[in-house]
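Figure S7 source data.
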Amino acid sequence: MKLYRGLVAATVEALQDVFVKNRQADRVVEQLLKSNKKWGARDRAFIAENVYEIVRWWRLVKYVAQVEKAVESDDFWRIAGAWQLIKPQHLEGREAPESLPEWPEFEAMNPETIAERYQEGLQIRKIAQSIPDWIDVTGEAELGEQWPAELAALNKTAPVVLRVNSLKTNVDTVREQLGTDITEPVPGVPQALALKKRINVAALESFKSGFFEVQDAGSQLIAPYLDVREGVSVIDACAGAGGKSLHLAALLGNSGSILSMDIEHFKLQELERRAARNGVTNLTTMHISSEKIIESLAGTTDRLLLDVPCSGLGVLRRNPDSKWKLKPEFLDKIRKVQAQILENYSKMVKKGGKMVYATCSILPSESEEQVRAFTKRHKVDWQFVSEHRTSPARDGFDGFYMALLERK
Ligand SMILES: C[S@@+](CC[C@H](N)C(=O)[O-])C[C@H]1O[C@@H](n2cnc3c(N)ncnc32)[C@H](O)[C@@H]1O
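C-alpha cells for the predicted S-adenosylmethionine complex:
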C-alpha cells in the first residue's frame, strides 16, 4: 500500500485540531472532508479511518512513537507514521506500507524500535487498551473482573444500526430497499437493522423520507422499557435531539402526547426537524429555562423518561475522543446532576404512573447506585420494578442502563 503525503498531512492536521484545539473528532473529520472536493472515496476513507483509529488508540500510538506530549506538528507526524507501521498487527484486515516513505518528518523513525515499543506497550493494560489512568482505575473499582472485557469491547468499531420507523414503514420493506445482503435483523430488538457494510445512509431517499433513524440497538431498548400504552401522556425530560422521543412516538402510533424537554434549545430545534421527517404528530417541545417549569408540571404525566446526562462511558466505541476529554471532576459533577434530576423531575409523574431512568454509562455509580439511593429515599412513594443493562462485551451493543420505577 502506498502512502500519499497529502492524505497523511490531512490526517495530521485533523489530529492537531482534536488534541491541540480540543475540537470534536467527528466535526473535524466532517469539515475537513468537505473542504477538499478533489479527494475521492478512497482518500476520504483513508483520512476518516486513520483519524478515528489514532484517536481511539492515542495512548498506545503515542507510547510507540515515543511522544510524551503531542504539541508540535512533528509530534503528530511521528504518531501518524507509527500508526501506519503497527496498524496491520493491531487491527484485522488493515493494509500498511512496507516501510515509511523517506519524508523528512519520518527521518528519525526506526521501525525496529517501533515494533519493540509496540510489544512493550501491549503488556500494560492502560496503554494496550489506550485509556487514561483514572478511567482504568474507576472502571476496575466499579466493574471488577468485568472491566477488562468491557474495556476491550469499547475499543471495537461500533456497527451502524438503524431503527425502522413504524409510523411510515416496516422492517421488511426497509430491508428490501437497502438490500438484504447489506442489512440484518438484530435478535431481541424488533425495529433494528444492522448494516453489514458502511454506506452513507443520510444520503438515501428512504432516510430523507423518515423511514428510519440511525440508533444503536441498545438505545432502542429504552423507549419500550417505559411500558407505554395507547393514549398515555409521556414526558421525555432530557430529550436532546430526540432519538428516544421519536421512538416513543412510533410506539404510541402517534396517539396520546409526548412533551420533549431539554435545557439546550438548539437540540429541541433539531428534534422538531426530525419529528417532521418521521411523521410524528403527537409531540411538542418545551425548553427548560428554569426549574419552575418542572415544578409547574407536578403530577401531570403518565410516563416519564429521564435519559440523563452522563459520562458517556458506555458509548466510547462511537465517541473515542471523549475518553481523552472526560475529567474526574466532570464525573463527580454529573453524578450530582443525575441525583437532582431524579429527585426533582420525578415529581412530574402522576400516582400510578411510571418512570424510566437511563444512562449511556457502564458505571454503576451513575446508574444502579443512583436508582438505589432514590428508592431508599422514596420508600413511601416509589416502587422499583426492574432494571436492564446492555453490555458492549456481552451483546455487542453500546453500554446502556435502564430502570423502571412506579409511583405508588
Ligand atoms: C443522554 S442525552 C439525551 C439523549 C436523547 N434522549 C436521545 O435519545 O437522543 C442527555 C440530555 O440531557 C440534557 N440535560 C442536561 N442537563 C439537563 C437538565 N438539568 N434537565 C434536562 N435536560 C438536561 C442534555 O442537554 C442532553 O441533551
